[in-house]
């Protein structure tokens, strides 16, 4: 006899899994979250650069679990396992997922991002489609995420800033480094409007979470005050407090089992410590393993009823994977040429730069033409000490060492500070960007690994370069030296979406508008997999919002059972 | 390219079977044979009298050994660290450790000319900087001397245990 202990089983405890768990546990349903990583509590995190940034303590060893990356080299597709290249596509595999380690620069997508095709038309070589829902349908959930996750900010009216149903953020912006005076002034000189960046970081205490203490090591690190809006702090902890959530860490989900065509019966899991296998039954199943891994799990769940993967009657499963396109650039602000602010103010650590530019979100220019652009974030170079010290120590093609190295490092660390920008623009979905199963490689649990074919669309580069030139001008106006930028088609592995498109037509999409499988009624995918296009902002606010929306729908379904 | 091939490309040892470092004790023994050479390279890269603490003062060879020896460390790189040192010893006919600073400079610059040597030196540089600028708990940023030299301090809370114990 099998017992269905849970109303809902969720695979993955990250941003999306946490939002679903929170909603359903609060509504009184019995929920189990299955997370392959371990639980690291707030007090266990530290600012250990070796541990968090240079070793794989919060991600699997690439010799145990990895991906195979397929890239076009001289016209031919070449496959490289990530244990060979070191190019990891894991982003945080502990309870709370990558959301523990994000920098937390969040934006809502613009209403036009939901209807890119209608607005800008088809683009050759790109599989752009409109979303089956509008911004208006998402707005209440953007707000819910803002409140629950604790997104701080300051609303400023701007043509590319989406409308909101409340006047402003409940949490005021985080504290800012004085460099914003210089940045704001330089932008104004160039007729550019700088905006305050909304951030998933608390500027004020909120319930069990303390306000940010400006630790100076935010992105890539876990937060020791609870200020960062990770799924673990903001959602799983309150969900656990209801008594309705069972959090199963160290639990790797191998596949979802179906004995009927239209329903999952159980998840096949393995305890990552004891190696023991188990079946976990539930009424509904929600996959939230991060986009590329969710598609892989469904592909790995193929059986006679679903020969091409679970919920893949459309053949679209794994297709149209997207990343955030763009690039970055930087310049150095030097003590001897600094304008507007004091050098000591610039060197103050911990405070955020907190500025975004949305002026180039939509380009409509008499000379440049009309096309979809992107957003820009400004920040200081990551304050990691080892990586800053190790960088750029070459002169005339030779390594620098000895006393010259000592001079160079002390000069670099004490006489200047680097300011950076990052550009986010649409990664156009295309036929050469998808995840499938690798036929030869298996992870340590015996499951085929995800094979990611990665290729961007030429338009992505064009847009990125266009914006990069404008940002370089901002840095130059600030008086920065050695300004440069780099825009490439290499994807950022931490901003990934698509692979299980949602849509109204079961022939061309994997999920319906509620992110429920068209084929399997009790199966939902709650992470960024649903996104047919990614918008020109980082994804995570949309991931949180959509997962709340999906959870609301599941709640209704459970009620009707 | 396969990473192992990349690491050994241009090696005098070529495709000879690389030093096996399966058992940790075996590694310790092999390390003893090359320890003084690696330490001498570190000391040349981070000498006394520089604006940053010296490798000798901060005992960076110990950090390097403890890091590379641990089972969590990449086994290919573990072997490479040993091999590269042996290659340097062989290139310089066993005399590297007793050379003057100027001779060492010449020897290392010559080694740097080879792809293999360059990779190895770069790895030793990384492993030494990791020691000097990581949290004091790892043993080679004693009394935060590395951080003080750069006026850059790791954030709070600092780790109280090494990652291998997490
Ligand atoms: C350093 C860094 C900085 C970032 N900065 C930003 C930013 O500034 N702005 C922004 O918008 N976004 C940012 N992000 C991205 C953001 O963290 C992610 O978009 C978001 O967390 C994704 O949520 P998710 O639920 O899809 O996946 P995740 O949060 O990654 O959670 C997925 C979870 O599923 C688990 N899992 C996977 N497979 C299985 C399996 N088979 N069985 C059991 N469990 C499984 C994983 O271990 C993981 O814990 C950043 C990410 C990183 C790493
Ligand atoms: S305290 Fe603030 S800066 Fe530090 S990790 Fe938490 S949110 Fe980020």
Indicate the proportion of strand residues of chain B: under 5%
Task: Report the top-level CATH class of the largest domain in chain A.
Answer: Alpha Beta
| Molecular shape of chain A | globular
User: In total, how many beta strands of chain A?
Assistant: 22
CATH topology of the largest domain in chain A: FAD/NAD(P)-binding domain
Helix and strand composition category of chain B? mainly alpha
DSSP strand content of chain A:
15-25%
Number of domain modules of chain A: 2
- By secondary-structure content and strand pairing, the structural class of chain A works out as alpha+beta
| Continuous helix count of chain A | 13
Briefly, what is this?
The complex is a heterodimer of chains A (561) and B (166). With 561 residues, chain A is an alpha+beta fold.
Write up what this structure looks like.
The complex is a heterodimer of chains A (561) and B (166). In chain A, strands 1, 2, 6, 7, 8, 9 and 22 form a 7-stranded mixed sheet that branches. In chain A, strands 5, 10, 11, 14, 17, 20 and 21 form a 7-stranded antiparallel sheet that branches. In chain A, helix 1 runs parallel beside helix 13. Chain A is 25% helix and 23% strand. Chain A has 13 helices and 22 strands. Chain A has 561 residues and is of the alpha+beta class. Chain A folds into 2 domains: 374 residues, 3-Layer(bba) Sandwich (FAD/NAD(P)-binding domain), CATH 3.50.50.60; 163 residues, no CATH class. Chain A is globular. The longest helix of chain A is centred in the C-terminal third of the chain and has 21 residues. Chain B is an all-alpha fold and 166 residues long. Chain B has one domain. In chain B, helix 4 crosses helix 6. The longest helix of chain B has 22 residues. Chain B is globular and about 45 Å long. The N and C termini of chain B lie far apart (33 Å). The site of flavin-adenine dinucleotide has 40 residues of chain A, from helix 1, strand 7, helix 8 and helix 13.
